[in-house]
Amino acid sequence: MEKQRRKVLKSGSGAALLGLLATAGVIRPGMALAESNRTAFEARSMAATLKAIGAASLVDSTEVQLSGPDIAENGAAVHLGISSTLPNVTMIAILVEKNPNPLAVAFRLPEGTQANVQTRVKMAQSSNVYVLVKAGDRFFMANKEIRVTLGGCGG
Amino acid sequence: MATSPTKIRATAKDGVAEVKVLISHEMESGQRKDAAGAVFPAWFITEVTARHNDRVVLAADFGTAVSKNPYLAFRFKGGAAGDRISLTWKDNKGETRTDETKIA
Fold first, then answer.
1. Residue A110: inside a domain, yes or no?
2. What is the dihedral of CA A8, A13, A19, A21, to 10 degrees?
3. What is the pLDDT of residues B11-27, one digit of tens each?
4. A110 → closest Cβ in B32, B56, B73
5. ipTM of the complex
6. Which residue from A79, A96, A118 is facing B65, i.e. has the nearest CB?
């Protein structure tokens, strides 16, 4: 199944084909990263990414914290820390709005793992960075604008 | 292609283990071009799994926007000194590597 999906992506007649598969029920939006979900990483806009993740409704929450620099000198490695005081967090995703593919990374947290992760991401240009947290069946988010003085994806 | 070891540091305090990981990987995004304008093909880690003894404590899906030589830090309940912590990654070329350490 997983392999099949990848082959489809590679063969690459893109969105139309994916739409067809979605209606045929081969891939469903809302598979929601319980399993690895590569389609979300291929999405080119925030809206499409959120749809692929299955986050239909989002709630801004003060219980989700995103820490990072206000100004990043080097967009190739922007250090981000995410933590949340929400209970039952099962997924944390980082989305950089103005990157070619907004979804940078999605963490799946089993029970016992705290909603507290750090990583480094690339940013093509100054952008809003969103962090999406799935707690129970609901999605919460926080965002932060990070200015980049040197992009990390060009060259 | 040979892969380089993943550096893993794990410490336990008050029943909570903190794990810091530095993976050695190019993480080529597929967006960069060389001087002649040819695109460097994408080469990046797609999946990372961290285990405490044999139990998964963190799974992550990476896109191309994770930095070169990815850094991760996370915490989980229940680690004790001497327990095994392993980290496995897989990239889009099918290369995979597992490294292991003990909680200090």
1. yes
2. -30
3. 999 999 999 999 999 99
4. B56
5. 0.93
6. A96
